[in-house]
Design goal:
Helix content: 10-25%
Shape: elongated
Strand order of the largest sheet: 10-11-9-12-13-14
Number of helices: 8
Distance between the termini: 66 Å
Structural class: alpha/beta
């Protein structure tokens, strides 16, 4: 079974909590803080695998959680880091965040790795928070919570050339004759229910990957038939072999059919019409094809689209089509973009990251959070403007209001990451 779109849930490993501990030994009853740091949580990593060609494995497992980091321990012992989760996907897999439908990663190469979720940092033990005025801190950082997302995996086949055309015009037969692929072939619509790939070996010793893209009919770009499910697979192809029934076996006009398919490609993605095409006028072993081939040539060859009379069933004209495609690929224009531009997913901005406030000893308030940590990293708090920005940040992000809700009073101590200050209104 060919599966090219699935939804899964991924979660990074949370960081382990730092430890609150004080050194104790015989004759030492008031030793200093020795709480160790928590371990880092595992990350979620996607890897391209050329041995996979479908997303079927994800039909049965849809939840992926990385291992959390272990908590720190006394005597400065660090917690163990959590193990990463490696998720293998076929080349051509696009990973989208489900809620926004924005792209988080696009895996196009074998072995390519993308870290989608980083594991949470481990919290620091209380040994890091000793100061001359607070020599026995009863506080340690909690481990950082890792992110989690519902993501959609979409597979877009990576092929050099796409076979396009209405159902039942002979695309599968063409593919079977020029490659070693073995597609299902029969004389009814939608015989091909999944894309088929084959490798074409040319006389020059070069080869290219050819994909049979099924289900494109009039209205496919708006969801008619099966076309909307498979149109994504044409986006990565450099050129098209447009197969058309030149004998009009079912009474269709081949010239109109070429226009209809091209119109669907344009509606789906206008960039697709920049791709070179060769029209393979098929079924030229059936009487009545000559006039239609002449009409196709008169209509499309002035536009630079070569028309070749072929019979996929008898092998007529196939070599000429392959040679034309080979010339196109060897002289491929640099100004044709065959990787679409994505609306990329952005992490929530630092200013909007959640924060937490913990209270110790009734008057010691500790503010933690990824956004706060990022803000401290790029702000010079020793400069007057930097400290003013820091105060503004605390008010605008609701941290001051949250401290007041917790019952903070003037003279109480607030710790934000590595900085302590006394609270005054």
């Amino acid at each position: 079974m060919f599966v090219d779109r699935v939804k899964i849930h991924i979660k990074g490993g949370d960081g382990g909590d730092g430890c609150v501990s004080f050194y104790r030994a015989k004759y030492i009853t008031h030793g200093g803080p020795d709480g160790g740091d928590g371990g880092k949580g595992g990350s979620i990593i996607f890897v391209g695998d050329e041995n996979m060609n479908t997303l079927m494995d994800f039909r049965y497992k849809r939840m992926f959680k990385a291992e959390p980091g272990q908590a720190g321990a006394k005597r400065n012992r660090f917690g163990k880091d959590g193990a990463d989760v490696i998720i293998k996907v076929p080349k051509g897999t696009v990973i989208k965040e489900a809620q926004t439908n924005k792209v988080m990663a696009d895996i196009t190469q074998n072995g390519e790795q993308k870290v989608i979720i980083k594991g949470g940092k481990g919290g620091r033990g209380n040994q890091h928070f000793a100061t001359p005025t607070r020599q026995a801190p009863r506080y340690a950082e909690r481990g950082q919570k890792a992110k989690e997302y519902d993501v959609i995996l979409e597979l877009k086949l990576i092929a050099d050339v796409g076979l396009i055309g209405f159902p039942n015009v002979g695309k599968s037969t063409f593919l079977s004759m020029v490659t070693n692929a073995n597609p299902k072939i029969a004389n009814y619509h939608f015989t091909t229910l999944s894309p088929n790939l084959g490798v074409v070996q040319m006389k020059t010793g070069e080869d290219f990957v050819l994909a049979d893209i099924p289900g494109i009919v009039e209205g496919a770009s708006q969801g008619v038939g099966l076309g909307i499910e498979f149109l994504r697979h044409v986006e990565r192809t450099k050129a098209f072999i447009h197969v058309v029934d030149a004998a009009s076996v079912e009474g269709d006009d081949p010239v109109e059919n070429v226009h209809k398919i091209n119109d669907e490609l344009y509606k789906y993605n206008p960039e697709l019409m920049k791709r070179p095409q060769v029209i393979a006028a098929n079924k030229c072993d059936i009487p009545g094809w000559e006039e239609n081939v002449e009409r196709l040539k008169a209509e499309f060859e002035p536009q630079g689209i070569k028309v070749v009379a072929i019979s996929a069933a008898t092998n007529r004209g196939l070599t000429e089509v392959i040679d034309l495609i080979g010339d196109i690929l060897r002289n491929y224009p640099d100004d044709i973009v065959f990787e679409e531009e994505y609306d990329e997913f952005d992490e929530v901005s630092a200013g909007n990251e959640p924060f937490e406030i913990e209270v110790f000893d009734g008057n010691y308030y500790v503010v933690t959070g990824v956004g706060v940590e990022k803000m401290m990293g790029y702000t010079n708090l020793e400069a007057e403007k930097g400290f003013a920005f820091f105060q503004k940040y605390l008010r605008e992000k609701g941290i001051i209001a949250a401290l007041e809700e917790k019952g903070i009073k003037e003279g109480d101590t607030v710790r934000v990451y590595d900085m302590e200050f006394t609270y005054y209104k």
